[in-house]
Automatic annotation (TrEMBL), chains A, B, C:
Self-association state and partner proteins as the record states: Homotrimer; The trimer binds only one molecule of glutathione.
SUPFAM superfamilies from the UniProt entry: MAPEG domain-like
Coiled-coil portions: none
Family statement: Belongs to the MAPEG family.
Species whose genome carries this gene: Pantherophis guttatus
Record-annotated membrane-spanning stretches: 16-37, 83-111, 131-153
Pfam families hit by this protein: MAPEG
Protein name in UniProt: Microsomal glutathione S-transferase 1
Gene Ontology MF: a single term: glutathione transferase activity
Reaction catalysis annotation: RX + glutathione = an S-substituted glutathione + a halide anion + H(+)
Length: 156, 156, 156
């Protein structure tokens, strides 16, 4: 990278960019999975999306909610709710003077927790599989937030 | 913090990190409040979440929407819609050459507006309490955006 | 801007700030459009929002979902799902050593795709107008992600 800001002199920030990118790509894939399930289950929400299935009642019957589609949409929303705080926390955490190994531990647990959360939600696995996956990522984000607060609020 | 980027030489960016962290923690707490209301009101959305309440019809009756749960979820979504623009604007605003006191005014009004918005939504307080709280944060974000536009679009 | 980080020495980052600001302002306007449609169609979700329309049954009839309101809300959620990855990718992409002209191509296609997506969703235009608009922005974000991955994962 053009090293204008020295983002890459900081190996922890480099690690954040690597893990953050994978996590955001994973979140983006939820859009594709939603589209796939909408096609497969023929369950749409906009009248213009069903026009190719014919007219009138023929098309209208595909304007419906489907449990599998809604499930994928919930995963996507849960990703937004959890990954956005991670991106904020993970970025500033990488400047907090934390060691690379500690930071990697945080980033890796978070990545693992979101991947496992998605699998547990999609299958679905019996609880508390999904709950524990979510909790792991949630606590890791709080741990990074705590470090940022400890540093940022003790500086003059 | 490891001062690789001089983020902390800039007292306005330091202020942004402080207020941004508090605001993101507040947003994250909505997940816990949602979980709390789902437990309290026994209102779940995934069949696997109700398995511990028994089988068949016994568990099925807990698959329902509850007004209080939906209320908390709306707060969370409203947070996402408003706090994400704030994080974007607040970060770049802190490099716009604005004075610390002006920036603090913006950050503090936004933090106050979101906390009051959450209280007004949860209680709920009569309107226009919630509407005004939302408006305050919205206008503060636009004010920061305006400053960024004025600076970024006049540079060569 | 106070050039503490040299953000503005980097003309690609300056371009990101310009386009990112316009895109975030566009996303924020969805809140106002939602409010406008709620007023126009008298379709609200919170009992306290309908209090000014009278009491009891008189007010209750305005607690309803309206297709136009829901349409605007879907645009807003789709914006969140797509613009957040863009902000993450676009920021780090601007440090990837990419040329200004290539970066501008990415930022401009994304901005155009989101504006056209909103118009296609609001009108609504027949499919695949909205689908192609969404796809353009989605692929551009992946293209930036790919570049970030190629750079960040090949550094020692």
């Amino acid at each position: 990278m053009r090293n204008v800001h020295g983002f890459l002199d900081n190996d922890v920030t480099l690690a954040f960019i690597r893990y953050g990118t994978i996590i955001v790509v994973k979140m983006m894939l939820m859009s594709t999975i939603t589209a796939f399930f909408r096609m497969k289950k023929k369950a749409f929400v906009n009248p213009e999306d069903t026009a190719s299935f014919g007219k009138g009642e023929n098309a209208k019957k595909y304007l419906r909610t489907d449990p599998d589609v809604e499930r994928v949409r919930r995963i996507h929303l849960n990703d937004l709710e959890n990954i956005i705080p991670f991106l904020f926390a993970g970025f500033f955490y990488s400047f907090s003077g934390v060691s690379l190994s500690t930071a990697l531990l945080h980033y890796r647990i978070f990545l693992g927790s979101r991947i496992f959360h998605t699998i547990a939600y999609l299958v679905p696995l019996p609880q508390p599989a999904r709950g524990l996956a979510w909790m792991a990522g949630y606590l890791v984000t709080f741990s990074m937030m705590y470090k940022i607060i400890m540093i940022a609020f003790t500086m003059s």
